């Protein structure tokens, strides 16, 4: 018997850091669950995939709320990957952002086909990174 899929929510009500463990796999300097919760709360829109009270996937957008949004993070726990959770999260978030002119994201080359299947087009992205700040800690 297959495990039922997670439910999606846009609410952060009652969400705790303990429900946010297991993300940022292979990040050399990942945010703590407390910092992770702060970044979700600071987002314009968030969609969570929940199963048995645990977050198994999430996607967030930052936006001016008028014309544009950027999707910085989409993650699904490794044991939930390949089950359509990422697709469901993105579909719901894009619906949440449908009132905007532009929705952009940057991704690694190996993820381009995933986003193209969702109707997104390839473009260019310019960026800078301060990897010592990757965990989201506050400056000293």
Report the helical percentage.
10-25%
The biggest sheet, with number of strands, parallel, antiparallel or mixed sense and barrel status, is: 5 strands, mixed
Bin the strand percentage.
15-25%
Provide the low-confidence segments as ranges: none
Q: Give the topology string: H per helix, E per strand.
A: EHEEEHEH
Taken from the alpha-carbon principal axes, the silhouette is: globular
Give an overview in words.
By secondary structure, this protein is an alpha+beta fold. The protein is built from three helices and five strands; from the N terminus they run E-H-E-E-E-H-E-H. It comes from Deinococcus actinosclerus. Keywords: Acyltransferase, Transferase. InterPro entries: Acyl_CoA_acyltransferase, GNAT_dom, NSI-like.
List the defining traits of the structure above.
alpha+beta; 3 helices; 140 residues; Aminopeptidase; 5 strands; globular; five-stranded mixed beta sheet; single chain
């Amino acid at each position: 018997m297959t495990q039922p899929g997670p439910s999606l929510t846009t609410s952060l009500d009652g969400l705790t850091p303990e429900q946010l463990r297991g993300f940022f796999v292979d990040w050399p300097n990942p945010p703590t669950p407390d910092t992770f919760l702060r970044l979700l709360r600071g987002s314009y829109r968030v969609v969570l995939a929940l199963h048995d009270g645990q977050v198994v996937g999430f996607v967030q957008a930052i936006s001016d709320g008028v014309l544009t949004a950027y999707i910085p993070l989409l993650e699904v726990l490794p044991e939930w990957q390949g089950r359509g959770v990422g697709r469901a999260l993105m579909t719901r978030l894009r619906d949440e952002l449908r009132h905007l002119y532009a929705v952009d994201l940057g991704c690694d080359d190996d993820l381009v086909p995933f986003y193209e299947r969702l109707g997104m087009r390839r473009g260019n992205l310019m960026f800078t990174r301060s990897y010592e700040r990757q965990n989201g800690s506050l400056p000293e």
